[in-house]
Every structure is written in C-alpha cells, then in structure tokens.
Amino acid sequence: MKIRVLIILVALLCVPFTSEARKKSKKKDAKVEEKTESKYEKLFKGKQCTTVKGMIILHKMDQKVYMEFPLSLMEREMLLGATVSEISDNSNALVGQKNNPLVHIKFSLADSAVQIKEVSNERKTQMISDTKDPNVKAAMAKGNFAPVIDAYKIEAYSPDSTAVVFDVTKFFVGNNSWLQPFDPYSQRTYYGMAARFVKYQKDLSYVDEIKAFEDNISITSSLSYLQDIIYMGIVMFAHNEPVTAKVNCSLVLLPEKPSMRPRIADPRVGYFFGYKSNVSTTQDGIKNIYFINRWDVQPKDVEAYKKGELVEPVKPIVFYVDNAFPEEWKEPIRQGILEWNKAFEKIGFKNVMVAKDFPTNDPEFDPDNIKYNCVRYCPIGMANAQGPSWVDPRNNEIINASVLVYHDVIQLVNSMRFVQTAQLDERVRTPKLPEDVVKESMRYIIAHEIGHTLGLTHNMAASAAIPVEKYRDAEFMAKYGTTMSIMDYARYNYIAQPGDKGVKLTPPDLGVYDYYAIEYGYKPILEANTTAEEIPVLRKFVSDKAGDPKYRYGKQQVYYGVFDPSSMTEDLSDDPVKAGEYGIKNLKYILAHMNEWLDDKDHDYTYRQSIYNDMVTQYTRYLTNAQTNIGGFYINEHYVGDPYATCKVVPKEIQKRSLAFIMKELKNLEWIDDINVVKNLEFGGSTARLMLKEFSGTLLNTKRISLAAYREPDVAYTPREYLDDLYSYVWESAIKGRTPMASEMLLQTVFLETLLKEADPLTEKMFQSDYFLLRSNPIPEIPTFAKIKMPVYEAMQMMNSLSQNSALHANTTEKNFLNFKRDNDFRQALNETFGFNYIMYVENISNDNQKHLLHRMVSRIHNTLKANKNTGTYESKAHYNYLLSLIEDFLRDK
C-alpha cells in the first residue's frame, strides 16, 4: 500500500515537470531550427526573385542582381562585351553597335570576397617569353599579374557549397567606361568633330533583364545620362540632354585551351592584328610578335581534306540577317555573306559561310548576345556601313562579328552610281535606283563588310594594279572588275566613256587579292605543328607573289598624310592623271544631260542639288589624286629579296605631267558653273571660283617635294624645278603678253598672297610641316564600306582620319599562349617577323629650306608685273597694278 501511494505521488510530482520539459524542448527545437536556416535561405526568404540558370545562376531581386558563381569557374578566363540593344536617340549610338573593347577578366576568391581581375586590355602591352630561364619568368610574373578591378562580399554559399553568391549590381549598373553606349563618331557628335561630356544618372539606371545559357550569361542594363555636346570648346550643341540606353552585357566563358593555333601576321598582307612583346635571352632587346585576327576554321574530316576533297569546317561562320531590313535588301545581303564561300572553296572548304534570317521561334536567340553574329539594320541618315569584330585575346581568334548597315548607305550608292557611271548606265539616272542595281550594289557592300569581319583590312592599292585603258576593255573588265580586291575603295568605273560597249562598271564579286588573302589567313598548314613552323610556308607563299601588282597590299592613308598615289581611296587605275581626264569628260557629259534625264523625276530639284554637290566632290577628287603624285612616294612593306622598294619617289615626268594637268583644270573650271543646271539650284557664289581659290592656296607647299628630292636627288622633281614650272603656269598670260582670263586673275591673286606669306620669315604658320607615311602597318580602324557624306570637298579624306578607332579590335594577351614551342627553332623563326612596324609620321622641317627660292619667285613676279602693268584691258591693268602694290608693300616692310 505504501509502495502504491509512493508511486502515485511520484507520478503527480512528475506531471508538471514533464509538461515544462516539453515546452523547453520545443523552444530548444525551435532554436535549433532557427540556427540551421542557412545564409543562402535567408538571402532569398520572403522576397520576390527571378532566377535563371546557366553556366552561372543569376538572381534578380530588390532591384539587385546576384551571381551564384560556381567555384569550378574561379580563375577561368572570360570575355565581357557590351552591345547597345535600345537607345532613346540613335544619333548617339546604333542598336547593335559595340562601342567599347572587350573586357578580358577572371573571378578569384580572396578570403570572404570575390575579386574580378582584368587579365588583359588593349592598352597594356602583353608580355611573353621564349626563354626557359626561371628567373626571367619569375620576374615577368611579378610585373605582369592581373590587377583587381572590383571586389564583392560573399553573401552566402549555395546549399551544396559548390558556388558563392554575391551582389554584382554595381558592376552592371555603374558608370563604367566599358559599359557606356556612346559612339564617339556618332551623328550627334558630328562624326567626331564635337566633344561629348556625359553625367551618369545612377538613380535612373537599373538592371532590366537577365538571361543565362550553358556557355554565357546576358544582363541588360537600362542606363541614363545627361550629355553636353560641345564643338571646339566653345559652341554648345546640347546641354544636359537626357539619353537612355539599354546595354546588353554578355559574359562568355573562354575554353581552357584555345583550339586554334595563332598565325603570324605578314605586313604585306592586310589583316587586322594583335601583338605580344617577347622577352628573350637569345636575342638583344624585346621584340613585338604580330598575329592576325581570324576565325577558327578547321576541317571536320582531316583525311578527306588531305585527299583534296571539299570538306565542311568544324565550326561554320554563321551570320543572322536582321528581319527589319527593307525586303529588297535581304537577298543581296545573304548573297554578300555567302560570296566568301568561293574563297574558302579554293582552299578546300565548303559551307564555311552560312546566312540565316533572325529566328522567330527560338527563345534563346538574342541578336545582342555575343554568341550570335548579326547583320543589323540601322535606320539613320548616315551613308555608311561597318564590320567590326571581337577576338579572343589569347590567340586572336575572332569570336563575334557584326555588320551594321546604315539606311542612307543606299543614298551614297545612288550618288556614286550616278556620278561615276551615268554616262553609260541608263538605269542609274534616277533618284530611286531600280531593284537590280540595288541588289548588285548591296551585295558588294555586304561582301566588303564581311571581308572585314573575316579579319581583312582595306587594300587601297588594289585598283592601281589595273592599267587605265583596261577600264575601257570589256573583256578585261568582265574578268577582273574595277579592282583586284573588294576591300579597296574602288567603287565604280568612272573611266569608261559613252559609247564603250559591254564594259563592266562594278567591282568584282571577289577580287584576285581577296582569294590570296583568305588563303594566307585560313588555309590549314597541316605539316606544321606550331605557329613557328608555319612561318617558312607563309613567307614563301607571300614572296612568290611579290612583284605581281595584283597581290600588292596598300595601306589606307589618312587625309593629312596621303603620299602614295598608288594607294588612295576612291581612285581607279595606275594613272591618276589619265583617269582624271577620262573622269572629267564623263562629268561634263553627265552635267550636260542632267536636266534631260531628271526633269520628269526631280520636280523640285532636290535630287539635282545633291548630285551636283557630289559631282563637285568627284571632280575635286580627280585633282587631288593627281596632286598626290607631286612629291609622292610609292610605299611598300619590303622584305629582303622583294622587288618592291620600301619607298620609291614618283618619277619626275609623272610629277610634271600631274602639275600640268592640275594647272590646265584650274584655268578651265567654268564648266562646273553650267548655268543651265545651277540656275535652278540653291543660290550661291561660283563653285568654280571657290575651288580655284582653295587649290591655289596649296600649290606653294614644297615640303613633300623637298623630302622626295632629299631621298632621291638624282631622279626627283626638285623644289626649284617645281617652282619654276609653277611660275610659268600661273603667270603664263603675263609672260606671253596675253590678257589674262578671269580665272587666271583669281589664280594669280591667291597665289601671290600665299607666296608673300610663305616668303615672310616672320609669318607664323598654323602648320609647320607636312607628315609623311613611312613603311608600316595601318592605324587600327573601324572597317567601313563608305564614310559619311559631308558638303566639303575633302569630306571622304577627312572622315578617313576621323574613323581611325581601334576600340573595336581587341589586342592580344600573354595568358595561355599555348601553342608555341619554347625552343630554338621557335626563336629563330620569330626573328623573321620583326620588320612589322607601325605607321610613322616624319616631320619634314630640315629638308625644306626653300625661302630663298620663294624670294627669287617674288622678284621674278615683280619684274613680270612691272613689264605688264600698262598692257591689256582696263581690268588686267588694274589687276597687275594691284598685285604690284602687294609686292612693293612686302619689299618695303622687309
């Protein structure tokens, strides 16, 4: 009984204790649960989050973007590129445009943070070494590691601890230079002539869209700015003008080991290039090694390729054609892309180039993503097209390319076809080109730009391989067209005369040089195992063609340094003088028939005004092309054994003939003022007199001639000979006792005013010297079909200089220079490439001591005027006495 009572008491005492214990146990469990909730879960708990999964998982929440970055991708190299996907005003940048260089980066762990490191950039020289000396390599490593450009706190690890999560919002919505959408040569900045200053609007910028794929991610940011547009630091075209752009940023994972072997560049073949600086102990000095930009085109079936069968590439080059293009443009665009298959077929490949329309049912397709190569339509009033590309900086493999076609490129085609071929082609005598002309012209434009995307630069010497009379030869033109390369700026056949039957007026589909250049860049050299082993094969390939003008490569020259008359833009043939004479005959014919052809099509004269301006530009080009002969040099990349010299002065007889041609034209410009045409156009002064005045002021510059005479004194046109001839031409009427024409009086006035300024030792000139282009490579450029049309005579030459921009061509890097053998054969082979230099500008000051010749000319003119001051008409007497007073005032001041 006592035992039973004791048990009951114990039980009663235990009831409240057990209940309390349970409560405590629940609290304890709750605490355990609370403690086991991970940082990862807390980060996303209760928040609206958009998540996309790919090589990197992206989370978008609370106006922020988080990367869930796999630890396996740490230290892997990637490329980050920005593309304009939308913009509030496309005169600031174009949709599809890539205005900044690629960012070559890698992600690294550093304690509790993730760092972004810049592996390479286009401004930093990339260093490599062929030495096995560990001390040299250690020293290089200390001085060339990847700098940290940003860092982020790790917010959490993924549940399986294979990835870290961090907030990257500031990287994609920040005032980063590589993210800015603006084109420095946009229409809004007047093609680069005005300066743009922008203020980033952080509060108005945000992440818009996120996408993730197996090998890349895509983040679109909406970025807002206020911009000022200022010209010459004085005139303000815009102040606090709002601009908003959506910029698509693609982050692409690079292969751990590039599959494509880099190929050495040869300055005698025109490719865009990158370079590395080689630190060697087997030669004296650090040398640059240059590599061409090219796609990875390798045979899918190597054995079949060896047998000479046409094989497909492992990776075809696919271009997607914008569905926004005008319908009649689309088919010739596809044809222009596929045209290059002919060149690849010659080296054993088929179906390398593929053209597809923008997919309408593929959710992954994004034309702004770096994964896709696109031909984009740009509805803007600029007469232009361009073909930029991005490369893997480790081996110069092109990984993405775009072709941007501005709407008004068709206007430029219309102008060129009319001004250069209307003397023969009835189809082009119209403000609206017929469909067949549009198609053949658009195919040429696209083929030219696709050539750029394949790595080819302009070859301005290609048309100079053709003798001038061949442009009137129907059989020759049918075979070659107007140029040996569509990478030339040789548009249409302005030499063929009315009545020349069956003469081709257009460039070739592909030129002889184009096949040659593709073979250099893309033909597999299967017998070679390394880049170094390819060099002898490539060197022989080029040397075998050296001396044949069809394969000569001529670099583009900027407008203030055009010294080579055989490597100019917008010219034809090997003879600028004879070509100009033919071209001027055609312009006179076209001008005389303009109203007849256009009265029923151009009722308000708007088209005729535009065409007239273009005719003036074309006429001026004929004169400037010939003027380039005077004091000119033929410039070539020259290796030992090549038949071309590095620099060769234009023969004296050609220079003298060029001067005679120019002076004849300057005295007979009145035809350009044809009253039957200009009376219906915008009211203005005499175009002929304006041209005469502009050219007259350039005739006394002897710096080019002095340099040529210094280089080759036995064969050159000397400054004294040139000035003597110039004196004879300008003062011909007075010397012969003939009454001067009105054009001659203006010529003499401008010439004398310029002479007195040049002869005055105290005169401060704005430009002290001309620039000479020495043997070299081209300044990296935006590859374009045509430059912007501007209402000035030197517009095309000026825009050539304005468009020199290397931002679209990423340079090379040291990292993963994988395919080279570090041995003596490699070092010896590379020694052969060191003649590859940049363009050099040589100021000619010391070799132009011609003041005594100018004073001598002043004295000669003084005597001539005194002898003629009382002869001729009232106007000529007044003219001579006025000029005489100018000289006497000059002599009195001295």
TrEMBL record:
<keyword id="KW-0732">Signal</keyword>
<dbReference type="Pfam" id="PF17162">
    <property type="entry name" value="DUF5118"/>
</dbReference>
<dbReference type="InterPro" id="IPR033413">
    <property type="entry name" value="DUF5117"/>
</dbReference>
<dbReference type="InterPro" id="IPR032534">
    <property type="entry name" value="EcxA_zinc-bd"/>
</dbReference>
<dbReference type="Pfam" id="PF17148">
    <property type="entry name" value="DUF5117"/>
</dbReference>
<feature type="domain" description="EcxA zinc-binding">
    <location>
        <begin position="432"/>
        <end position="734"/>
    </location>
</feature>
<dbReference type="InterPro" id="IPR034032">
    <property type="entry name" value="Zn_MMP-like_bac"/>
</dbReference>
<dbReference type="GO" id="GO:0008237">
    <property type="term" value="F:metallopeptidase activity"/>
</dbReference>
<feature type="domain" description="DUF5118">
    <location>
        <begin position="38"/>
        <end position="85"/>
    </location>
</feature>
<dbReference type="Pfam" id="PF16313">
    <property type="entry name" value="DUF4953"/>
</dbReference>
<dbReference type="InterPro" id="IPR033428">
    <property type="entry name" value="DUF5118"/>
</dbReference>
<feature type="domain" description="DUF5117">
    <location>
        <begin position="105"/>
        <end position="300"/>
    </location>
</feature>
<dbReference type="InterPro" id="IPR024079">
    <property type="entry name" value="MetalloPept_cat_dom_sf"/>
</dbReference>
<protein>
    <submittedName>
        <fullName>DUF5117 domain-containing protein</fullName>
    </submittedName>
</protein>
<feature type="signal peptide">
    <location>
        <begin position="1"/>
        <end position="21"/>
    </location>
</feature>
